[in-house]
Write a structure and sequence with these properties.
The complex is a heterodimer of chains A (204) and B (636). Chain A has 204 residues and is of the alpha/beta class. Chain A has one domain: 3-Layer(aba) Sandwich (Rossmann fold). Chain A contains six helices and seven strands; from the N terminus they run ββαββαβααβαβα. In chain A, strands 1, 2, 3, 4, 5, 6 and 7 form a seven-stranded mixed beta sheet that branches. In chain A, a hairpin with a 2-residue loop joins strand 3 and strand 4. Chain B has 636 residues and is of the alpha+beta class. In chain B, the strands form four sheets. Chain B has a seven-stranded antiparallel beta sheet with strand order 4-3-2-1-7-6-5. In chain B, strands 12, 13, 14, 15, 16 and 17 form a six-stranded antiparallel beta sheet that branches. A two-stranded antiparallel sheet of chain B has the order 8-11. In chain B, helix 5 crosses helix 9. The chains are: A alpha/beta (204), B alpha+beta (636). At the A-B interface, loops of A face helix 5, helix 7, helix 8 and helix 9 of B.
Amino acid sequence: MAFASSGTEPAQRCREIKIVLLGDSGVGKSSIAQRYVTDTFRPHGESTIGASFMSKMIVNNGSPCKCQIWDTAGQEKYHSLAPMYYRGAAAAILVYDMTKKSSFEKLQKWVDELKERGPEGIVLCVAANKCDLEEGREVEVAEGAEFAQKSGADFFETSAKNDENVGRIFTTLVTNVQRKSEAARPAGEARLDAAPPKRTSCCG
Amino acid sequence: MDKAAQELADTEDRLASDLQVLSDVFVGPLRAWAPQVSAELPRLEQTLERLFGPLDEVCASCGEFAAELREAGATATWAECFERHETQLARSYGAYALGYARAWQDLAAMRSSSVALDAFARACELQPANQRHLTLASLAIMPVQRPPRYVLLLGELGKRLEKANADATNACRALECAKRVAKAVDENVEREHARRASTSRAAANFKKCAETEAWGALNAVRDGPLLRITKHGPVDAYAALFDDRLCYGDANMKDRALQKMGAAPESPGKEERYVLHRTLKLENVYCCRSATESRGGAGDARGLAPWELLIVSAQKSFVLGAESAEAAAAWRDVISDAASKRRAALAVKDAPPRAVKAFVKRGAETRATDFDIVGLAGDLVARPSGARRDLGPKISHTSHTLAQTKTMPLPRPPGLAPQTYEAELPPPSSPPPPPRPPPLQLPDTNDDFVVTVPVDLQRGLGLELRNGAGTVEVAALAPDSVCSPQVRPGDVLLSVGDEFVQTTEDVVAKLRQRRADAAVSLRLRRSAAPSTNPFMPGSPLISPPVSQEPDAASCEDLIQNVVAMGFGEHDAMKAVAAGRRNVDAVVNWILDNGGPVEEDPDLAFARRLQAEQQSPRGSNPFDSGRQPHVAGNPFA
């Protein structure tokens, strides 16, 4: 799991979390990433040709965390190149367009592929994007939530355009990854990022 | 200038610029400072070479493509530019993606385990030349992402252009081209994954040794379990075909013992079940459907069983059995195809399999032995066609008794009659063997005579012995190693050195005891029969071998009796292995030869032989100690 230390201060180690965005073409993956990182939205943005990933530093539950948000370069459509895209990812956001049923139906394929070839213990989140276009809805909330529950993922309806729930997705993912990492830590192992125990001796 | 072409050229320039940063800011310093930043220098250097080896070609390809795009944009034919560069793009990006798939994980692992390496990489990120502060991961994956990005970019471009626009036509053509490039890159990586998986699987099945450790760099073509048909029956084996060699090994002794007892192997799926037995150079390998096919004919029904395949090579010839006729056919095809490719790659003459002449005989005369493959060696490739010779430079011998294959799990066509294969060996290859010393003129009588021959077990038994009725016959002698042309096939071997021999095992054991000797004297009796070449067509059938193996129970009793007399079990086993068949002979042998068995180099052989003798089928003593000898073989 990509949950690496990058800082130098032992008490407040900065962790890096790789998050990948998966989903059909045109569902708004790049818009979600762009909204989260730069807080901007381009309605007719060019297809993803930018850098391999974007970074954003956040502080979650008092711990600094650097999110590496890997936006797709189209390689996920190729059987052998896709694992290079999501290799080492700690979390994945499965995005579908709630105004396009076909994009929702393809999510199951991604869940299956991640289970088969993805990193072990990857944290999932389902994002029903473009929720600002309520009049064109083709996928009901219950459908999306049920799918997310079956896949062991959290579910959010998002709008990159209106900045609805975009931040919450990432915060939830980071929290879940941190929780999972804590749970996987062997018992008795000292937490480097934890505050030193307070001395209780009165003579101290 | 065409706007679409301009945009494409801009993105291409941006990529070229980023890759230059990757090369100058990361790869160059990492290579230069590798000894200082990593304790695992060879591994790091190898990883960097694998990962970034094709980077220069990608950079050059990018720059050239961008320049041509700009130039082509002025004439509004930029799609042609894409098509012209299709092969180059697929090759350079494909090579890079291959290296990335192989080595990026290694570099990441080394980085996470080495503080110095990680700190160095982070320091590189801070260099002023890295103006966008891109990370190594971000830059290194760019060439992998580029082909699919072409598809994304051109697809998006096509959507936004009006269909009547010339740019739309260009974008459509370029999109198809980009899809082909991305698919080619993807398939390249897919093939590499399959190759690595296949190689790892093949290596995992064999007990680790220096040779299997080096298989990682080979290209596996096919691997799988087979049966190797030996003199004493089928042996569970595993074959791994690479693009330059064919390797095979037998199941470990424990599983073989269980199989012989009719029990299932202890753990069929267990790793390292097989011991690498031999590696054959693929350019010397021919795979035949039947022995007659090796004469150049189409093969016939009298050949091998449909589920069997005959492997003929200069080093070793043998029969393998597959699960079914279809599986055997698949193996045959893939071996023949790979061998032909190998010969073509080495510009070696692809001599037809008829270089080995074989004759199939079957019928009542074959008695208990079902088939008996004799021969096949020498240089099968460079031999001039049409030449004939009585005996070839090396002879191997394998036979198989169907009556002993009760536990054989393979489907067998009903009513398959016993069969015998005999092969005439090919004439010598060029360059011709060194001239032999003039033969001694021996009286052509039935008197005994003695010849002194060199013993060279490392290069295989130059001496091929045929077990007759109570005697040991010299079936053939390899002139190049034995240098005794006066010995003719059919001559009866009476003693090795001063010791009389009765069985083939006797001879083998004695030769092995004399492995340090340069030569051994053989006492022979000239056969009364005319010394015709038994391998020639039309010659009378050679009497098939009759098993002379002692009864396993009697051997066990013999050993127990000797042990009860106070002798060591190992010595007793060794004496039995040396051919002693009664208590007195065993005791005498122990008194003469007994010693600290732990230090005896023959102990392993004696154990093995004894273990085989306890089973209904013994091992092939000719196979057990033979080592491939390539360098010293003038015919290889």
